[in-house]
Amino acid sequence: MIDIHVGAFIEPNFAENAYVVSTAGAAQCWIVDPGLPPSVAQICGHVSERNLTPIAIVLTHAHADHIAGIPEVLSAFGDLPVYLADEEERFLGDPGENLSINVGLALRIDVPERRGLAPGDTLTLNGTSWRILDASGHSPGGRALYCAAAATAIVGDALFAGSIGRTDFHHSNHAQLMRNIHTHLMSLPDDTLVYSGHGPRTTIGRERRSNPFLVTESPTEI
Predict the structure, then answer these.
(1) Structure confidence by residue, pLDDT tens digits, 97-141
(2) Threshold 0.90, pTM exceeds
(3) How many other CB atoms sit within 10 Å of the CB of residue 176?
(4) What CATH number does the domain containing 98 carry?
(5) 168 is in which domain, residue-wise?
């Protein structure tokens, strides 16, 4: 199995997980969902300690707690491309859409280059291949990244250990989220490691067996 390293950095107010994804023996890395302080400072320390070179910011979705650290990342590492689903491009510059206005912020984020993330696309990092999965429902352009060779999935706020993403926000759709979880995440092998936007790491098999939202809502009911 490919040696993937996923460093997690937890922001204390919303318990949001930012990640640095790298591979053994290679310098290039991704920064995934950089959040509020102190996440980016911790990310910078991790990058320096491991002699890594960020080549992109990858966003599972564009809610405030997952994008707040983008300006700080760009200041530290230069004009990195930002990968984000087309459905949420407008969220970056709109505090109402990215929900920052709900928590007393007004995030309007400019990025030097945005690149789309469409379901079925593939991103590569140091020779590893990551398939983009539709994980929308919590937000309209939610995405998951899956590396089969490393049995690893980064799923944003679609699926958590013992729970699923909220669907009471504007643009959320509970039925859509459940369909995507069952179709695109629960179809992955049981040993797939799952890195969520909040909470601890889990596996597909553990969630298939014990997640109360998945046990009580079968695919035929949604």
Answers:
(1) 999 998 888 999 999 999 999 999 999 999 999 999 999 999 999
(2) yes
(3) 18
(4) 3.60.15.10
(5) 4-221
